[in-house]
Specification:
Number of strands of chain A: 7
Pfam families (chains A, B): Acetyltransf_1
Distance between the termini of chain A: 14 Å
Oligomer: homodimer
CATH class of chain A: Alpha Beta
Organism (chains A, B): Novipirellula caenicola
CATH topology of chain A: Aminopeptidase
Protein name (chains A, B): N-acetyltransferase domain-containing protein
Number of helices of chain A: 4
CATH superfamily of chain A: Gcn5-related N-acetyltransferase (GNAT)
Strand order of the largest sheet of chain A: 1-2-3-4-5-7-6
InterPro entries (chains A, B): Acyl_CoA_acyltransferase (IPR016181), GNAT_dom (IPR000182), Mito_N-acetyltransferase (IPR052742)
Shape of chain A: globular
Helix content of chain A: 25-40%
C-alpha cells in the first residue's frame, strides 16, 4: 500500500536519491542535468508551499511531489505540482496515487485549478496518465524543451479545473 | 521618437510610476494589487535577466519591459517578457516598439523562442497586438486569472519561435 504524508527533513536523503537520476537524465524536468543537491532542495522543498512523499509498507520512500501556486496573487488559485516516482517503484500506480492526493490537497488548500506548465511530449506515459486524471492539453509549446537525447521537443501545457468533488 | 535602452537605477522612480497603477488595477498582471514598491522592484528589476525602458525625445520614460528565461536550463532557450506602457504614452506604438525590441534582444542573447504565460483574455488590445507581432495563442487557461473587476477570466498562453530574421 502507498501512503502519502508531508515531507520531513529526515526524508531528504531518500527524496534526493529519487530526484537525482531523473534530473540528471534531463528528459522530463527542465532543471540542469548538473543541478547540485542544494539547488534541488531549493526547488523541490524550499520554494513550494508543500512537499509530500509516497511511502510503502516498510516506510520506504517510493515517490515525491511538490505543490505550489503557479502564479502570483491573481493567478494563485491555480496550483502547480511536480511528481517523481523512484525507479524501483515504477508500475505500481504511485504516480496516480500522488496525482489524486495532490488534487485533494490542492482543493483542501483552497486552490481552484491545477496546471502543469511543461509536460514533455515525449514523456507519453505521463501525458496519458494526467489525461486519465482529467487534465487536458490546453496547448502545445513547439520545441520548448531541450531534451538531452532528442534535442528540441514539444511540451504541453495541461490544466484541470478542480471545482468538483474529489473521490479519494 | 521612442528609444529603448537598459534600465538604470535612477530610472526606478519613473518605472514605478508606470507600473504602480497597472499593478494596483489588477486587470492585466497577476501581482497583488497591494504589492509594495520593494516587491515590485524585485519582480521587475531583480529577478529578470534584463529590464529596459522606452524613452521619449525629452528622455521621459514611456514604458518598460523585462526579459528573462521562462524556465530552468532545459527550457531556458524560451524567453519570457512583460511590458507596461505609461498611461500618458498610450496609443503611440510604444508597446509595439518594445515588443520588437524584446524579440531582437532575445535573439541577440541566444533565446530561440518567446512565451507569454498569462495574457488575460479580457485585455483584447494586448492579445491582438501580440498576434500582429507573430505570437500565437497556443492554449487558453480557463478562469486562470482573478480579475479585480470581472472575477475569474480566461488567460492565454502565447508563443513565438524566434528563429528568423528580425526586422528592427
Amino acid at each position: 500500500m502507498t501512503t502519502l504524508r508531508l515531507f520531513q527533513p529526515e526524508d531528504w536523503r531518500s527524496v534526493w536519491q529519487i530526484l537525482e537520476p531523473i534530473f540528471r537524465a534531463g528528459e522530463t524536468y527542465p532543471y540542469s542535468p548538473n543541478i547540485t543537491e542544494a539547488e534541488a532542495r531549493v526547488v523541490w522543498i524550499d520554494v513550494p508551499a508543500a512537499t509530500f512523499v509516497a511511502v510503502g509498507d516498510r516506510g520506504e520512500v517510493l515517490g515525491t511531489y511538490y505543490l505550489k501556486p503557479n502564479q502570483s496573487e491573481l493567478g494563485a488559485h491555480v496550483a502547480n505540482c511536480g511528481y517523481v516516482v523512484g525507479e524501483a517503484a515504477r508500475g505500481r500506480g504511485v504516480a496516480s496515487t500522488m496525482c489524486e492526493h495532490s488534487q485533494a490537497e490542492a482543493v483542501a488548500r483552497g486552490f481552484k485549478a491545477m496546471q502543469y506548465n511543461l509536460v514533455i511530449s515525449t514523456n507519453e506515459s505521463a501525458v496519458k496518465l494526467w489525461q486519465r486524471h482529467g487534465f487536458e492539453i490546453v496547448g502545445t509549446l513547439p520545441k520548448a524543451f531541450r531534451h538531452t537525447k532528442l534535442g528540441y521537443v514539444d511540451a504541453h501545457v495541461m490544466y484541470k479545473w478542480l471545482d468538483m468533488a474529489i473521490v479519494k
